[in-house]
Amino acid sequence: MKIGLFLCHCGHNVKGTVDVAYLSQYFKDYPHVKVSCDYPFLCSKPGQEMIKEAVIKHGVDRIVIAACAPSLHFELFRQVIKEAGLNPYMLKRVSIREHCSWIGSDPIKNTKKALKLIKAGLHSVWHAIPFEEKKVEIERSCLVLGGGVAGLSASSFLSQMGIKVYLVEKGGELGGNLKALKNIWPGEKSASHILQILISRLNKEYVDIFTGAEIESVDGHFGNYRVQLNVRGKRKELKVGGIIVAIGCTPFDPSLKRDIPYGRDRRIVTTLDLERVSELSLPSHPRIAILHCVGSRDETIGRAYCSKICCMNGLKAAYDLKRSYPDSYVESFYMDVRAHPRGGEEFYEKVQEKGVIFTRSNVPEIIPKKEGILLRGEDTLTGETFEREFDLVVLSLGIGPPEDGKKISQILKIPLDKDGFFLEAHPKMRPFDTPIKGIFIAGGCSGPKDVEESITQGRAAAFKLFSLINMGYALIEPQVATVFTERCSGCRLCERVCPASAIVYDHRSRVIRIEEAQCAGCGLCASICPSSSITLTGYTDAQIIDEQRALL
Amino acid sequence: MEENVKIIGFACSYCAYKASEMAGSLRLKYPEGVTIIQVPCSSRVDPALIIKALLEGADGVFVAGCHPGECHFIKGNYFTRRRIYALKEMLDIFSMKGKLRLFWISASEARKFVEKIKEMHKHLRESKR
Prior knowledge:
The structure holds two protein chains of two kinds. Chain A is built from 15 helices and 30 strands. Chain A is of the alpha/beta class. Chain A folds into four domains: 3-126, Rossmann fold (3-Layer(aba) Sandwich); 141-249 and 401-474, FAD/NAD(P)-binding domain; 251-400, 3-Layer(bba) Sandwich (FAD/NAD(P)-binding domain), CATH 3.50.50; 477-536, Alpha-Beta Plaits, CATH 3.30.70. In chain A, the strands form ten sheets. In chain A, strands 10-7-6-14-25 form a five-stranded parallel β-sheet, covered by helices on one side. In chain A, strands 16-23-17-18-19 form a five-stranded parallel β-sheet. A four-stranded parallel β-sheet of chain A has the order 2-1-3-4, sandwiched between helices. In chain A, helix 5 (107-126) runs antiparallel to helix 15. By secondary structure, chain B is α/β, with parallel strands linked by helices. Chain B has a single domain (7-128), classed as 3-Layer(aba) Sandwich (Rossmann fold). Helices cover 43% and strands 18% of the residues of chain B. Chain B has helices at residues 16-25, 47-55, 76-93, 110-128, and strands spanning 7-12, 34-39, 60-65, 100-104. In chain B, strands 2-1-3-4 form a four-stranded parallel β-sheet, sandwiched between helices. Chain B starts with 6 loop residues before the first strand and ends with a helix. At the A-B interface, helix 4, helix 5, helix 14 and helix 15 of A face helix 1, strand 2, helix 2 and helix 3 of B.
């Protein structure tokens, strides 16, 4: 073992408070250290040349660079080591700037600390193993679950890019929730027209559509998933590279809320019912009530979240009714109007100008009577109670989680949030990703979304998957968990905790196996294993213990 | 005599280690007795490693991970939380109260990170006296 130690002055940043020359002299006689030298700027061209030269001249086989924080110049130093003919994993970076010279001002204390840090780095590099990034072939195909807006949008992009798409829809035909709508705000675009455009954009050569189909099981890892389908009772097996989940959301079923006599009285309809019927039998000068937030922001039914899109639906229903029946009296009962899409606020004003009355209240009590439906509630702005009779009550429905969310989440092993929607890997940075590589989520299944957002999300998820698949191969992160099967007792604790579902229990030999391609490298299994039979390469127990011993 | 308090910190590379790098860039000062070991996730920290560090002379150990719900590996820090809680109870029995701490630090919370370390260092220095 020959270690090359390189210390960086970083101008005066390190040298100012750390005696670099003393340190490089001190480590000259340290076990296994072959070369120990310091340089003003290791990241400069001559600095890089110096490292390369040491490798060639002295036959150094592992390198410790004591300089700035590891995340800085990460690729640069790796490249230098590679060019010198060493494996990039034989490099250890020690941070003596961010973690030493910049956080203290006493030169003696800082030098002492830097000495400890470098020692720890040297001890850690003793355990370094050269890794090769393994390449695995991947299938140039993907599975899209759900033939709704997001699913179609994803499929059209992927098929146009020449990726084979298997589009699986549970229902009898494509379209999802869009099928139930007549026209879509804004601009009164026809829903069937939008659906036609989406379907016509599919590149038929590359798309196989399975309607009336559901997935039964999925195994494998990114690049090579094996999927069992149930197509109208017949089994079918597919091999795909990646999966996009776009199973959509379900509108709230108002009959679940007991105090709403929906389904028992024909004068109570939902905004979706309004889209279906073309003619309503209403008296002249009809009195119409629109109730917002039915099944949304309601903790009594366990839905504290805002469904986001139902405000626009309620406004649109009010506008449409007022236009079809100009002699009508339309009153909207709302908690807050959240007209969030672009142009939404203007539309809200337009509806008000049209003559729709807005009363701020919680969902009022609905009492059906022979001559009309009595609404009783409290105006939350004035604090007064009201009782008014209407000929028609329209419910603007909140949005619930996907019907099959639980089932799909169990099959694919991707998490759900507390409301039953699919959970993204990071709410801001990775909104389409799941913790499992190669599986993405899009559209209403990860939270209430309108058509525009679903199209965007479908496209975005497709693009992310395309960029993975188009590489043609998958690189396996070499720092993964490995198991000594001789020591494994088969307790399967690790299988239960693994966030990436990379651990498979082998029933025949009664030990576990780790799917390297799937392992995320968190090390949870290594720390939970009662017989220490799992190690995380790059962060082994021995390495960490040596490191902490050097620091004490 | 000057008290030399030694603290070993395990920092998750996705959050707390980044915060520690940022603390350096912001030139925030903290005692030099604090040294940090980078781990891929706070859940990598085996209780055995913590006990080992304490037995070999560390005055205190802290584990710093992402805030609950923000783990890169989705649920790693929940395991850390349970594990550290159990270990703390055990250490309390051996009158080693306050020697182990768990911090939730996101990558941007350099100042909070330094405050937490300083407070822990102060506490350990006083109890050592």
